[in-house]
Amino acid sequence: MGIKAIILAAGKGTRMKSKLPKVLHKVCGKEMVNHVIDASLEAGAKSNIVVIGHGGEAVGNCLPEGVETVVQEEQLGTGHAVMMANNYIDDSDTIVILCGDTPLIEGETIKALIEFHRKYGFAVSVLSALMENPKGYGRIIRGESKELVGIVEEKDASEEQRLVCEINSGMYCFEGKALREALLEIRSDNSQGEYYLTDAVEIIRGKGMTAGAFAGATSEQIMGVNNRLQLSEAECLMKKRINEFHMLNGVTLIDPLATYIESGALIGSDTIIYPGSLIKGNSVIGEGCIVGPGCTIDSSRLDDGCEIQNSVIVKSAVGSGSKVGPFAYLRPNSNIGRNVKIGDFVEVKNSNIGDNSKASHLSYIGDADVGEDVNIGCGTVFVNYDGKKKSRAKVGDRSFIGCNTNLIAPVELGENSYIAAGSTITDNVPGDSFAIARQRQTTKEGYLKGDKWEKKD
Ligand code: UD1
Ligand code: CA
């Protein structure tokens, strides 16, 4: 009695002019087919089967766990595509058919279609929409008492039928038994020589079962993406949807048109996002943060009250109250503590930085474990690579590293150690110690007064 979804995604997508299968093109950071699967799961489908085309392995590899694929070697039409999934259909199932290239469909709409379908006890229910310009779509043909009679493809439609503005979204809800029986009877005797899934409506009615059309979709939700222009339109609409969601959740977007938040991101209330910022992947941003302008936050976590300006943060975490940027780069696996300052032109990679520590300017911190309350002076370089292997450095709590220091890893500084500016540290420094490692200054008094150097003009 469960709900199963079959997602049609075998079409070549020639018009995308791409090596990538059409349904793997992303809208707001997520593959189109995965947007559809998310909507399906939200609507309560307990299993999802994706019909992929010849060479569609790449699609299979991008799908979430538990989603199955079935291959349609030759694209002989939507009816033929569903036939490929015949083995998954049980008589007692409710089958939802969706398209992999309609990323804007929402779970709630599919849910409403299923409710409509069950309420009236139809054997098949079609999700339809009213379109100002129905060109290219199959038209919904209703009878005298407005019942659904059939669906006519534009290429097969009469002049009069073409005037109908209610169109087929290409999404349906079927009773398993009715669908299985209809699939046996679909033929390809039409203008395109294809097996039309839409013919199932008439077949099912011919067997004395009932069919309905649910005009519950907006033109936006059923919009199919066939080329890059439509891809950008989908991106724009999805972006608007995501941004509105966050704004209504209490996030301030100074300029929503210039703010790019991917669909997996979470953002706490009272966070302010300035223009030119991109929040990617499953990033989680806390409350009361200030992000931007010009930030990329990719698959990272920012705790409450962080301030990030003109910086790039990838697969890293920043503790509450910390300030990053302007112009900082946190590369993967950087864990920044609370109330830390990572200032301008500081790059951090695969490092841990303890609470209240500061690297205010022009430093490279790679493969390091830096304790709490540490001051990393301007121009400090953690020298982590000898040309063959990477090594880690450790800096104890409350240490002070003077400007322009090189720490040649592997090396450890104990707690409360102090490194003189300009030092190149190759040996461990015990706690509470001062280390200086640089040439003494030589000053040659009067050196420039000799014949050779005296200025002549
Ligand atoms: C189909 C409908 C049309 C509807 C429109 C909505 C039919 C006959 N027509 O038309 O009434 O208005 O969708 O967008 O169903 N696919 C396969 N294998 C195939 C053919 C298609 O997997 O052999 C997949 C495509 O990848 C796509 C979906 O099915 O995701 C719809 O196919 P498409 O060719 O776009 O259908 P239309 O001809 O536009
Ligand atoms: Ca087509």
UniProtKB/TrEMBL annotation:
<feature type="region of interest" description="Linker">
    <location>
        <begin position="229"/>
        <end position="249"/>
    </location>
</feature>
<feature type="binding site">
    <location>
        <position position="421"/>
    </location>
    <ligand>
        <name>acetyl-CoA</name>
    </ligand>
</feature>
<comment type="similarity">
    <text>In the C-terminal section; belongs to the transferase hexapeptide repeat family.</text>
</comment>
<dbReference type="InterPro" id="IPR011004">
    <property type="entry name" value="Trimer_LpxA-like_sf"/>
</dbReference>
<feature type="binding site">
    <location>
        <position position="364"/>
    </location>
    <ligand>
        <name>UDP-N-acetyl-alpha-D-glucosamine</name>
    </ligand>
</feature>
<feature type="binding site">
    <location>
        <position position="101"/>
    </location>
    <ligand>
        <name>Mg(2+)</name>
    </ligand>
</feature>
<dbReference type="GO" id="GO:0009252">
    <property type="term" value="P:peptidoglycan biosynthetic process"/>
</dbReference>
<dbReference type="GO" id="GO:0000902">
    <property type="term" value="P:cell morphogenesis"/>
</dbReference>
<dbReference type="InterPro" id="IPR005882">
    <property type="entry name" value="Bifunctional_GlmU"/>
</dbReference>
<dbReference type="GO" id="GO:0006048">
    <property type="term" value="P:UDP-N-acetylglucosamine biosynthetic process"/>
</dbReference>
<feature type="binding site">
    <location>
        <position position="226"/>
    </location>
    <ligand>
        <name>Mg(2+)</name>
    </ligand>
</feature>
<comment type="pathway">
    <text>Nucleotide-sugar biosynthesis; UDP-N-acetyl-alpha-D-glucosamine biosynthesis; N-acetyl-alpha-D-glucosamine 1-phosphate from alpha-D-glucosamine 6-phosphate (route II): step 2/2.</text>
</comment>
<dbReference type="GO" id="GO:0005737">
    <property type="term" value="C:cytoplasm"/>
</dbReference>
<feature type="binding site">
    <location>
        <position position="438"/>
    </location>
    <ligand>
        <name>acetyl-CoA</name>
    </ligand>
</feature>
<keyword id="KW-0479">Metal-binding</keyword>
<keyword id="KW-0963">Cytoplasm</keyword>
<feature type="binding site">
    <location>
        <position position="168"/>
    </location>
    <ligand>
        <name>UDP-N-acetyl-alpha-D-glucosamine</name>
    </ligand>
</feature>
<protein>
    <recommendedName>
        <fullName>Bifunctional protein GlmU</fullName>
        <ecNumber>2.7.7.23</ecNumber>
        <ecNumber>2.3.1.157</ecNumber>
    </recommendedName>
</protein>
<feature type="binding site">
    <location>
        <position position="72"/>
    </location>
    <ligand>
        <name>UDP-N-acetyl-alpha-D-glucosamine</name>
    </ligand>
</feature>
<dbReference type="InterPro" id="IPR029044">
    <property type="entry name" value="Nucleotide-diphossugar_trans"/>
</dbReference>
<feature type="binding site">
    <location>
        <position position="138"/>
    </location>
    <ligand>
        <name>UDP-N-acetyl-alpha-D-glucosamine</name>
    </ligand>
</feature>
<dbReference type="GO" id="GO:0008360">
    <property type="term" value="P:regulation of cell shape"/>
</dbReference>
<comment type="similarity">
    <text>In the N-terminal section; belongs to the N-acetylglucosamine-1-phosphate uridyltransferase family.</text>
</comment>
<comment type="pathway">
    <text>Nucleotide-sugar biosynthesis; UDP-N-acetyl-alpha-D-glucosamine biosynthesis; UDP-N-acetyl-alpha-D-glucosamine from N-acetyl-alpha-D-glucosamine 1-phosphate: step 1/1.</text>
</comment>
<feature type="active site" description="Proton acceptor">
    <location>
        <position position="361"/>
    </location>
</feature>
<feature type="region of interest" description="Pyrophosphorylase">
    <location>
        <begin position="1"/>
        <end position="228"/>
    </location>
</feature>
<feature type="binding site">
    <location>
        <position position="226"/>
    </location>
    <ligand>
        <name>UDP-N-acetyl-alpha-D-glucosamine</name>
    </ligand>
</feature>
<keyword id="KW-0677">Repeat</keyword>
<feature type="binding site">
    <location>
        <begin position="77"/>
        <end position="78"/>
    </location>
    <ligand>
        <name>UDP-N-acetyl-alpha-D-glucosamine</name>
    </ligand>
</feature>
<keyword id="KW-0460">Magnesium</keyword>
<keyword id="KW-0808">Transferase</keyword>
<dbReference type="InterPro" id="IPR025877">
    <property type="entry name" value="MobA-like_NTP_Trfase"/>
</dbReference>
<dbReference type="GO" id="GO:0000287">
    <property type="term" value="F:magnesium ion binding"/>
</dbReference>
<feature type="binding site">
    <location>
        <position position="22"/>
    </location>
    <ligand>
        <name>UDP-N-acetyl-alpha-D-glucosamine</name>
    </ligand>
</feature>
<comment type="function">
    <text>Catalyzes the last two sequential reactions in the de novo biosynthetic pathway for UDP-N-acetylglucosamine (UDP-GlcNAc). The C-terminal domain catalyzes the transfer of acetyl group from acetyl coenzyme A to glucosamine-1-phosphate (GlcN-1-P) to produce N-acetylglucosamine-1-phosphate (GlcNAc-1-P), which is converted into UDP-GlcNAc by the transfer of uridine 5-monophosphate (from uridine 5-triphosphate), a reaction catalyzed by the N-terminal domain.</text>
</comment>
<dbReference type="GO" id="GO:0019134">
    <property type="term" value="F:glucosamine-1-phosphate N-acetyltransferase activity"/>
</dbReference>
<keyword id="KW-0012">Acyltransferase</keyword>
<dbReference type="GO" id="GO:0071555">
    <property type="term" value="P:cell wall organization"/>
</dbReference>
<dbReference type="InterPro" id="IPR018357">
    <property type="entry name" value="Hexapep_transf_CS"/>
</dbReference>
<dbReference type="Pfam" id="PF12804">
    <property type="entry name" value="NTP_transf_3"/>
</dbReference>
<keyword id="KW-0511">Multifunctional enzyme</keyword>
<dbReference type="GO" id="GO:0016020">
    <property type="term" value="C:membrane"/>
</dbReference>
